[in-house]
Amino acid sequence: MDISRPVTRTFTATPERGQEADADAILVQQVQAGDVAAFDSLILKYRQRLYSVIYNLTSNREDAADLTQEAFIKAFQSINRFKGRSTFFAWLYRIAVNATYSHLRRHKLRRFFSFDTIDEDLAPAEVLEALTSKSNIPRDRLLTELQEKLNEALQTLSLKHRTVVVLFEIESLSHQEIAEITGCSVGTVRSRLHYAKQQLQGKLQPYLS
Amino acid sequence: MASTQDNPLSPSGPRLTLEQLLQLKRSEQPEAEFWARFERDLKQRQLQALVKPRRSERILGWLSAGRQPAFAAVGAAVVCLLAAWMAFAPFRTAPLGGEMAAAGEISAGMMGNETILRAFAEPIPGAEPLPGEAAASPVAESRFIIETLAGQREKADVNRHFRTESRPQTLFAAVDAAKDYGVRSYTREGASLAGSGARTLQF
To answer: Domain of A27?
Structure first.
């Protein structure tokens, strides 16, 4: 995927996303005019989402932090070349995904995982309920074990399949948005998602109905 | 830690879908102080990025930072090396024919005419003397070489060295004519394009 490749499609999947894109465009113009502080607003807005994407692709929180910063620095350095042919959001995600791909390819032989802790307040109620029903084993232990299995299963997917699952199922992006970020067609996104979920179903079978 | 993998969830509890399981990933969050550290580190890197020029700018800066004399010297050295290479590089060993097709029009029947005789050639010192070469004038030697080649046309992989003082085109003509006598290739060694030098004729 080449981040310098012109993007002809732009997505504003929802009205909220459209408003968000408009607000971003104003901030980008300010940064391009020399207002460095405007970039801080963009960082504040996107740092958590960007970190989450990278963290879920790498399953390593230190790498994710480093790559998120790298993505912002690259975006900052290249922002004068951003012509608004795509939304800033998609452009930034493309930079982040590219940086992550490069990192994972560079370090594919020495990978290790480090996970963030699960915030039980944010965990799906159904999952917590299912884990609570298990007698005599503490829930946090079950939760940790499930987290490990889930991350292991994700890491068995190829990078392109993992990217689609992360962006769709975890980050709740649309097929069209993912297509733009990954530089492939919507059909390809759908087919990758279908295949990836089949793989995950097999890996996580003991946890599924 | 005792594994719960065999029976991870209670049979009496709700069963989960893949989507629900994947949503658990959303609840993996960095600790509270993470973002403060992140912001601090990012600010530092951002400042470095502002101060530190980009690679292209560094290269342009390096080029324009009063290094013109150094560049002139490097450029001159490159030109000298290139000229030296052109002057002294050996000819590649080339099978006869192909690029010498024009000269190939010289046939065995034309061996005695002036075209061939202009290819002044004589054995180089130390090379194995050929019969009768001592008494030969350059013109006679040239003819003699051709005749010698003709006499050895049945022998394969014999190398002889000759010094020539001909222009390359003339040499090509002579050598190309010699192919009719079994010369398969020639190599030019250590001579300028138009000057003298040793040639190996392989036949």
So the answer is: 13-116
pLDDT reported for residue B54: 60
Backbone angles phi, psi at B28, to 5 degrees: -80, 110
Higher pLDDT, A27 or B73: A27
Cβ distance of A133 and B26 shorter than 8 Å: no
Residue A89: CATH number of its domain: 1.10.1740.10
- CA closest to A115 among chain B residues: B28
> Is pLDDT at A35 greater than 80 in this prediction?
yes
Q: What is the dihedral of CA A59, A60, A65, A70, to 10 degrees?
A: -80
CA distance A90 to A93: 5
Question: Can you give the residue ranges of every domain in chain B?
Answer: 34-88, 94-202
Rounded distance between C-alpha atoms, residue A169 and residue B18, angstroms: 10
Asked if residue A136 belongs to a domain, the reply is no
A69, B38: Cβ pair inside 8 Å? yes
What's the total number of domains in chain A? 1
Structure tokens at A54: 């990278």
In the predicted structure, residue A5 carries a pLDDT above the cut 50: no
A31, part of any domain: yes
Alpha helices in B89-113 (DSSP H): none
* Within a domain: A123: no
Residue A150 lies in a domain: no
Cβ distance B4 to A209 less than 8 Å, yes or no, reads: no
pLDDT at position A92 over 60: yes
Average pLDDT by stretches of 10, chain B with 203 residues: 50 75 89 90 82 63 64 83 74 37 31 33 43 41 45 42 42 52 46 40 43
All residues of chain A having their beta carbon less than 8 Å from the beta carbon of residue B47 are: none
Residue A110 binned pLDDT confidence (cut-offs 50, 70, 90): low
Is A128 in CB contact (< 8 Å) with chain B? no
Q: What is the model's pLDDT at position B96?
A: 38
Identify the CA nearest to B149 among candidates B108, B113, B118, B114.
B108
Residue B88, chain A, CB below 8 Å: the answer is: no
* Contacting residues of A for B8, CB less than 8 Å apart: 134, 142, 145-146, 149, 206-207
**Contact: A133, B12; criterion CB under 8 Å:** yes
